[in-house]
Structures
1.
Amino acid sequence: MTTQILSILKKYPDSSRDALIPILQEVQEAEGYLSRESIARIGEHLKLPTSKIYGVATFYNQFRFQPLGKYHIQVCRGTACHVKGSAKVLDALKRELKIDAGETTRDGLFSLEVVSCIGACGLAPVISINGEFFAGVEADKVKKILKKFRKKGASNGK
Amino acid sequence: MITIEVNGRKVRANPKETILTVLKREGIKVPTLCHLPDLFPTGACRLCVVEIEGIRGLVPSCAYPVSEGMKIKTHSPRALRARKTIIELLLSNHPDDCLYCVRNGDCELQSLAEELGIRERRYTGAKNEYKIDTSSPAIIRDPAKCILCGKCVRVCEEIQGVAAIDFIGRGSRAQVGPAFNEGMNISSCVNCGQCIVVCPTGALRERSSIKEVMDAIADPEKFVVVQHAPSVSVTLGEAFGIKAGKDVMGIMAAAMRRVGFDRVFDTSFAADLTIMEEASEFVQRLKNNGKLPLLTSCSPGWIKFVETFYPEFIDNLSSCKSPQQMMGAVIKSYFAEKEGIDPAKIFSVSVMPCTAKKFEAERPELIHHGIADVDAVLTTRELARIIRMRGLDLKNMTPEGNDSPFGERSSAGKLFGVTGGVMEAAVRTAHYLVTGKEMEDYVVEDLRGLEGIKITKIKIGDLELGLAVASGLGNVRNLLDEIRAGRDDIHFIEVMTCPGGCIAGGGQPLAADQKAIKSRMKSLYEIDRDASIKTSHSNPYIQRLYSEYLGQPLSEKCHHLLHTKYQKRDVLK
Ligand code: SF4
Ligand code: SF4
Ligand code: FES
């Protein structure tokens, strides 16, 4: 994975600070998240302290600092979903998984992300798990959905 | 010079000065929360706003330059209202535990609320659940009390060149902390405490050792000794309303005995011991083509800085322990033997101007078979709290002296409290070691004063030596980079972590301005001027310690007790 980062950094040879956001985006694209190691590398390359990079990265919602879970859950917070109570769905997910948006469960099974609009407004409130859409999700359905994936995860030998 | 009008009165000013600078000079206090005197203004808090005729919005005086004919109103109803609202909003999600806060009575937010007459809660903001970071041996981080003024972030990066902390997240959930919001203990933080000194609230504070110390004093099995660092006697008074810089050595020693310490020792004596070892080490390196420049090792923030950011200079660091640790080591050996006390029963406390000393005392290299050189470190601020807690009226104490066998110090040892002082003390003894003669004039003017970097050349016998003194870690970076690039005309470098040295350390009484720090410095220079023993090697108690116990400087016994090693640190930088 280090070689991946190195080749990304090579594309920004003059190591100017303006390159920070695009580099962060590319690294996350390549690795799924921003690891300690990649942030340290980027810091060396741009001569920026890691505290600064982490600060900039946490300013934007798009960056995550833990690897994606086996099942990546995206909660739509677009207008339609919002009106239909997606906040409650998100709360239920957080409570069930004991993580915040942007985080991954300890067993590595689930990760949670809030996205603006997945363009499935007709299904509101909607969540997607590894690309599979779940329509009209209500807070009390969350448990059941998660259970299904937990089972699946276990039977897959994870 | 230009003329402006402040609150209807004509005032002379220099063009390009900020409004705030002029107001300060004119004795008009406009409150600030994010302003740092020597750094570029960020205009973040907007507390310093004033009204200017002809300009619609209020203007932050810390960032706005004066111009000819400008008419300023500093305390108009509009400006006051704006300030009041800002503080009310900051209070809206602030924890209401002032009574239990270490900064109670000493908090900028609290006193602004009082000054602006805030008597009710008009806004209630949502409070975030934050964890208090207690991972560091020196610095406690309590994000709930943070008002996001950003001063700690700027001091850490721009003055100290460390950048261990920054803003994390944004909006109402923003906080200040190290990368990945990890514990301070595993960050690049060097424990200098300069962030505490600028923090207006209790969001950053030292880890307190008051309880441990008071417990030890209450324990009849323990023999509790205390040592006080060179700078403490010229700063402690400020915590009791005594003029900045006043040397309170005698009444401090008296107060320490009333608190219950069994012996009171002066760390300046151990500074003399450090000089004996370090000057000898320097002369040895000069003679044997050893690694140069020699870097001083008495400032633990600096040591961690080298270990973290410049590990290739580890072999340049003097192997001498700091005075705190040397004192601790001879207390539990020489002193213990002399008095027939079991070293395991001794509880050794030090009072330091410094938060990094707390970290130093816990370094595993400095603990042998479970016996630490120093058991607990208090900052000057903590000592002041203990004195108050014990109801002692410092001003009405009768001065007392320090205890033997470490009673006398030279004034060279006392100079350790100010930037350049270690170098001056070392040069005095190195001169004697090389030439066998004393210097004609002990004072090396070029090494004095509060500048962040001082470089000079001196002659010792036929040797021409380059000396450099740096304080404030940001200032040392350039110098180390130059040396890395091949600069070779400097033989000895003194570094103190805090800008100005220990007199401005991270554990000193708060709210000291540059004037107070200068008074502290002057006081140490006066002590040196008036002293009868001005060099470490002529201190008779030092001579006795060597003849009775240690042998020669750099002897095997000295190596065992007084020298140490350093390690490269792999942390996120
Ligand atoms: S103690 Fe010093 S190094 Fe650590 S965060 Fe504060 S200013 Fe930075
Ligand atoms: S911790 Fe203190 S100095 Fe730092 S931003 Fe918060 S209030 Fe300001
Ligand atoms: S002090 Fe001027 S904006 Fe904060």
Note: Chain A has seven helices and four strands.
2.
Amino acid sequence: MKALSEFKKALIISLWFMLLTFPIMVIRVNTIEKVVEWRWRNMAFIGIGSFLLSFVWRYLLGRKEKGRKLAEAGSVEARPFSRRLLDEPRIYRPALAAVTLFAVAFPFLFSSYQTNIMTTALMYVMLGLGLNIVVGLAGLLDLGYVAFYAVGAYSYALLNHHFGLGFWAILPVGALLGVLFGILLGFPVLRLRGDYLAIVTLGFGEIIRLILENWNEFSFGPSGIANIPRPGLFGIQMSLNEATIYLYFLMIALCLFTIFVVNRLQDSRIGRAWIALREDEVACQAMGIDKTKTKLTAFALGATWAGMVGVIFAAKTTFINPASFTFLESAMILSIVVLGGMGSIIGVILGAFILILTPEYLRAFSNYRMLLFGTTMVLMMVFRPQGIVTNVRRIYKFRARGRDGEPSQA
Amino acid sequence: MDSVLEVNGTTMDFGGLRALHAVDLQVRQGEIVALIGPNGAGKTTFFNCVTGIYDPTEGDIFISPPGGKRRRINGIKINRAAELGMARTFQNVRLFPNMTVLENVMIGRHCRAKAGVLGAIFRGWDTRREEQEIVDHSYEILVKIGLADQVDELAKNLPYGAQRRLEIARAMATEPFLLLLDEPAAGMNPRETEALEELIVQIRDEEKISILMIEHDMKIVMSISDRIFVLDYGEKIAEGTPAEIRENPVVIKAYLGEDVNA
Ligand SMILES: Nc1ncnc2c1ncn2[C@@H]1O[C@H](COP(=O)(O)OP(=O)(O)O)[C@@H](O)[C@H]1O
Ligand SMILES: [Mg+2]
């Protein structure tokens, strides 16, 4: 009975697809011979293909539903597999050692082209971790994150151009300008929630880009700024290859710094307030948390990292123009957070590596890049909306732990 | 008598709808006061006015925290109301579902702690001590409330009755002088309701917290309230001790009916 209805549904879906794709897949007007070709074979392919796919789709959906019911009944180990792996010292210690070794050896084993790609991936790790504060923890859907990235990049390019300030002097300035812009842009929009916030931040992101594009006297317009110096190291002259390696290690250090700070933030009074705000805004306020202040902190701290990475980006490419800061960039960073797992540091790191490295190493599919990207995201949203790595709440230690039911001695 | 909460002539309009009409109500230190009335009478709206979610159209709301000074609180921010010592629960439970039971209570400690961004990053000695205080205090509250063996469970996985208790625990973590409970017994079975009754009395007696509660369960209302206020269509139609309310013909007519002697 059930199989029959499944069959019927799949049949309807395939008929629907055959009809939908009929004009583009079947009919072709041959303009040279002035005849219409009917490619009925394509229709058959579409029909069979969508029929089979819909079976697979419904099967997976059914499995997911079953899994959820089991989890609700409590018969499934509550901690996800990935988390159990991470909690097991015999597994994560050697894994950590291997990753460290690989990371250190990487630029000496591979070409500077590969090192460059890795540096880019690390930059996205930092961006992802920054946006994760805003989206993953505080639950504020920010689609204009790239604006702060642009602020950082232009602050280095312009301050260097006009005042000759160096990378290390500007790195903290970029971070501070990120905070400043985070607060400036955050203040008017934080009354809004959900979709409205997303749309307005999207607008802000575009406004910043359009200003950079059109205010020629200030930002040199679409032609951008060239000859931005790479990061220095006590004035030592470096070859291009050495500079690449230096930047790579710089990025590793900054990533570690970011992980350290974000980890501490999310495991603090402020971090808990962010999560509570994401979970229930009214209840959160009723518990004495200042909504505006908490949201603004999240916005500003998220922007800090974008500002810093912006400075690094300018130093890495030595040339910037507004075209590097389009909405697509914001969408990419957001995808990293969503794909990896909102609120999970490991998840965001994985997400960044997957989304940045896969296209680089699958050049053969570069024509289908956006198609694959879109499909992956849709599949993720349907089958694993929580992302690759689920965030697990911390277990706290307290004096009375173990002696349950008994108040601890104050 | 020293009232901790004093509401005078409070009116709340939503467009053309008058949800509250010139309502007076006082809660004295150490009292358990019940607010009853049929659905849609304006009880929750009254709570929302007191806790800063709505700014009443007319009237004055004063609080006098024990040891503090009397002040008017019309239209203060919601979080400010909590800081000043008024904590509440919600009619439809509003926990933080993806946080653990302990973390839910820890959020209640937020307004009694100070650590900021720099404290969080550097995690100095005083931040660590404060964090530990938050954890320990929260756990102690959970012990009192009777949720000590579920501290690490996600709030959304708790049974309904336990969720309601957790909301009370979270509210208590803010160290209120007045606890506002919106239908705390709703959806509880008789055994849970009995335990809740004990808990409310215990909170009043041991923590010296005054209580204002909205409740439909007449058994609990009649047995633990010191005074009862009755709302109907946004107007206060009666107030008095449980014995007085039980005899009050207006109340019987408007609302209680045969329920009283059941
Ligand atoms: N935010 C609001 N906007 C418009 N009407 C409201 C709002 N909140 C409550 N009301 C109306 O006010 C009346 C009282 O509601 P409520 O206080 O929830 O009643 P109770 O808690 O006594 O059941 C109802 O008619 C309700 O529809
Ligand atoms: Mg109500």
Note: Residues B 14, 17, 19, 37, 39-45 surround adenosine-5'-diphosphate (ligand 1) (CB under 6 Å).
